[in-house]
Structure formats: C-alpha cells, structure tokens
User: Fold this.
Amino acid sequence: GGKLEDPIKNSIAKIWKVYMFMPVTDYWGAVPYFEAGNGKNVVLYDSQEDIYNDFFKTLKEATAVLNTASASNKVFAKGDLIYGGDVKKWLKFGNTLRLRAAMRISMKNPALGKTEAEAAVAAPGGLLISNADNAFMISTANTPNPLGEISNWGEFRMSAAMESILKGYNDPRLQKFFNPALSGGAYKGIRNGMTIAQMSLPQNGVNTNSNINSSIGFDNRFTAPWTIFTASETFFLLAEGKLNNWNMGSGTAQSYYNDGITASLDRWGIKDAAVISSYINGVSLPIALGDVNSTPALTNIPVAFAATLAQQREQVGTQKWLALYPYSPEAWSEFRRTGFPKLYPRLNSDNTDSPASDPASVRRTTYPPIEAAVNPQGLASGVSKLGGADKTNTKVWWNQ
Assistant:
C-alpha cells in the first residue's frame, strides 16, 4: 500500500529504495530513477546529482515517519529478511544510510555533504553503531548468499592487495576472509588483470591461491548472511567526518577510527581485548610479496593512528576497505571517491579507455547494449547527463 494506507511500511520501502538505487547510480552515473517502472516505451534517465538530492529528501521523510512509531511496532515481520520488522533498527539504518550518501558527495558538494552528514548524526533514533544492529540479509535455499553462490566457479582468488595488507598487519581477519590454498596450505593472492595465459600458469591456479573463506562460501550459501551495512562502516564515516571538521558527535577521529576497527574485528568473531589492542596499536607495514611480478608493498602506513592528516585519511580509507569486505559495490565506490587503499596497477588491460597503469582508471560501468535497442531515447538522455562519453574512464558526478 501507499503512504496513506500504511506510512510505516511505506517509509521502510523508501529506505530500501535508496539502498538499492545507490549502487546502481554509482555504477553507471545517470540512470532511470524518477521514471523507472513507468510502463512506457521510453524511460528517461536522471542525472546522478538529481538522484542523490532525492536520496536525501526520501531518507529525511522516511526516518521522520519511523521516528513516530513505537518500539513495539513490527511491520513486514514475516517477510523482512534483515530486521524482522524491527522499526527502530530500520530507523537507525535509514539515518546511517543518509550519512553514507552525504559522505559520497562530500568532495563534489562539500556544503551539502556537511549539512546532510551532521543532520544524520543528530537525527532522532541514532545511528547504526552496534554490531547488534548490523544489517544482514538472511540467506535461505530461496535467497542464497550471492557471493557463496558463485564462489565455486573457479574464478576467485585473494587479491595481492589483500595479501600485502593482511599479512603485513598480522591481521587476524586473514583467516576469516580467506581459505588457505588447497595446494601448499599458504594464504596467497594474485595481481589483478592477468591474461588468460598468465592465469593458466600453475602459480596462478585456483588450488595454489586462496579462495574466500568457507564460512561465506558455496557450502554455506544457504546459511551465511549477506552483508548490507555494519557498525564498522558507520565509525569510519564518523572518523572521516571528523577529519573534515564536521560535527560528528563527541568522539575524535582517532576514537572513531579505533572503534571502526574494533567493530569489524568483533563482527568477525575476534573479541580478545589484547588481540584487538595489539592490532590497533600495530606499527608493522604491508609487505612485498616476493612473487614473479616483484610486487612491492602496497603502501607504507601502519594501523596505529598517524600524526598527519594525509596519513590519517589513508588509514581510514584502508581500514574501511577491509571492513567492507565482502561487500564490493561500496568498496569500489569508496576507492573511486577517496583513492584508498592505494591499489596495485593491473598487469594488463584490453580496455583502451582504462589503461592498466592506473588502478583507478575504471571510473564507471558502461551502459548495457540492450538499452540501445529497447530504450534508445532514454539511453541518449542518460549519456547527455554523464558529463562525458559512455566510457569506463568517464567519472560519475560525485567523482568529477
């Protein structure tokens, strides 16, 4: 029903709409949004700026309605695979999604980013800052974990970037994220952008490199929950906001950074206070891999919070990247926005628009060819709003 029939259900649907559309526009830029589902033969595209402005409007309206609901109010209780109908958790999720959206546009429109971020932090209902409120989608035989579903395709390897960072930091999440290689039992990653010939070499095979951990892999695809939003991301958003000199509450950039790491470790079952403290205060650096490509250390920053603003921003971005695993859409968007972590160049690229030498050269996904056949007028409207050609090296609006 509509908002007049059940405003609480309508508001939860609005929050979910924003969550679903955000990676869509972040992948492509201008997309059908206001006219999506209009039932017409022509569906015009909307600019990413207009879409994000509507995200803020929608989330503000939805959370205002949810704030009026009682704590005992349950909606979608049988069909809600995330919160089981808990309205107050949806309220926290909506506020925090608003903070994510605000940070996304913060380099393109700093004033609006600051306004929306501070409003999200101050909003009634609070933010998602406890792992007890983490948003995971329940996996079942009818709704399998998508990563687990495809993890046995023989295409998965731990990246060299992950290996350099996780091993260099003695990160206890290494064993949580990945399995040891079936051959040799080591944790081993590979560089991105290999040719078919390179991938066929024994040292790059499936059995000689690490796949994702079995706990979130194929055998557990019907039980392992799918990541939607976790408290660790919230803390890293707050930390970056503090580095921007925004009003993010009583914490400091360092305290929020440490809280983000702690929440991520706890989420993966690492709860020992001594282990957590040792990691947060660690001064070891990412390692060189000693592989056939002479891959160097990914970067030269430790985990322990640094003294300079530039290093602090890199640390926040790098630890956020780790904490987002395995939710890749958000990690890619944040890498494009911040440039962190400092990923390796790809070994090869068949895309002349996005050379291998620049690890950030893939800025967006090109529109699917079927649009030219079924919605050519709409496609033309989208290309006109990109600020560039329909190519992978054209930046989306918030990254221009």
Remarks:
- Residues 64 and 295 are 51 Å apart (CA to CA).
